# Entry
Amino acid sequence: MSSAEFLVQGFIKAFELIFSLNPYIVSITGVSVRVSGTATLLATLTAIPLAFAISFIHFRGKQALITLVNTGMGLPPVFVGLFVFLMIVPVGPFGFLNIVYTKEAMILAQYILITPIITGISLAAIKAVPKLIIETVYTLGGTEKDAAVATLKEARFGIITAVLAGFGRALAEVGAILIVGGNIAHTGSVGGIGEGLSETRTLTTAITSETSKGEISTSIALGIILISLVLSVNIMANYFQRRD
Amino acid sequence: MKEMFRIENLSKSFGNKKVLQNINLKIFTGEIFAFMGPSGVGKTTMLRLLNLLEMPTTGKLIFNGNDTAILQKNNVMSRMSMLFQRPAIFNTSVFNNIAYSLVIRRVDKKTIEKKVIDALDLVGLAGCEKQKSLTLSGGEAQRMAFARAIVFKPDVLLLDEPTANLDPANVAKIEEIIRKIRSELGTTIIMASHNIHQVRRIADRVGILLNGELIEVNSKEQIFTHPFDARSYAFINGEFIY
Ligand SMILES: Nc1ncnc2c1ncn2[C@@H]1O[C@H](COP(=O)(O)OP(=O)(O)OP(=O)(O)O)[C@@H](O)[C@H]1O
Ligand SMILES: [Mg+2]
# Structure
């Protein structure tokens, strides 16, 4: 088999897997979207209030918090994976939670990874709102709360971009969730490929394991889905950025 | 005449830069008072101090008989509004921009709608309510900001160069509205202007700022015919060299 034939065969099989809604592939996609979606939701619920607190409230340790956010934006995922793993192993400080190799552990790792990203980008969006907008709120009789709401509205497209960037990052991340999630699928086989339905196996971690097993068409199918998801997120982010 | 503001020995510095010094002034309820003076003298700063957007470096600002240093800021601020020299526009419709002060005061929807439509009509922007504010022309944006500042009927209206971007017809329209607001609602109006002719047309009293000091406060008639201070005369007649 020539290398061209090999690739063409791989792609044909990959599309078959996607369009036949192969249960193994579908379950992996489901886990990816659920884990990253939940992590993004929780990170957003933390990051936006945090960005507002940093922007509007004077408190001690603020500068340290900003430094923490900036550092957090560039954390290597494997480091976060290792850190979370050490916290949640049975002998670790949070061993009692009993979440090693679960979706919860993966959500926790991704939450730690993307909260700083969403906070950092939101902070920049809030900072870009002119001071005169806030003064306009005050001169029209608004309170500090009204000023915060008006700022949120002015910065809305930037904040949506921040959330999408966080989601994109979570979807594409592999190092951390591989360590804490373990890339587990159930035993047995569904749809003639791979193993049983995914437990903690995501698009990215499945690509690593399927490729090393030589299951090229399965990897290609997973890769196509991953890149389509990330691309759609980026197109959305781009759209909101241009609205700004 | 009832006092709206009393300014006592007020000065304002930004860092080492002294902008206003030793200002003493009373502004009365229902009058139209204009600050005049060369560019950079501190007219905008003066209005921002009155609006409590800036705090005096030294001295006192008394509002309605109460020292503003100890009053709840929002209670004072919510009774006035300022039209900025370069107005900031909320990135939303013209309607939402004008409705803003009413929405935060929890006025009911029907009333808001009526007031906004009336305000738009007044400034010559009838029918523009659905337009995105950022697409307005410079003069339209200025008039929208004017409508936004007056729609909730503040007790004090602070106008910073209110007609700077407007054509003569719209200047006349805005000046007429200013006069009407004062005569019908008794609003105290304080403005900053370089425009000597405009001040002459609408102000009751004038204060002339020069080198950080209020060199003369006088009725319009006096200032334009027999100013006390030779420098006022020079400024008014455009002889002032700066
Ligand atoms: N926040 C600030 N920080 C530093 N300097 C300031 C600040 N605000 C105003 N100034 C300075 O104070 C002086 C007075 O400014 P202000 O805007 O009050 O002048 P103005 O009389 O309104 O001028 P114009 O007629 O050009 O509008 C200027 O020299 C300005 O640079
Ligand atoms: Mg000015």
User: Anything to note?
Assistant: The radius of gyration of chain A is 21 Å. The CA atoms of residues 4 and 10 of chain A lie 10 Å apart. The pocket of adenosine-5'-triphosphate (ligand 1) is lined by residues B 14, 17, 19, 39-45, 85, 192, 194 (CB under 6 Å).
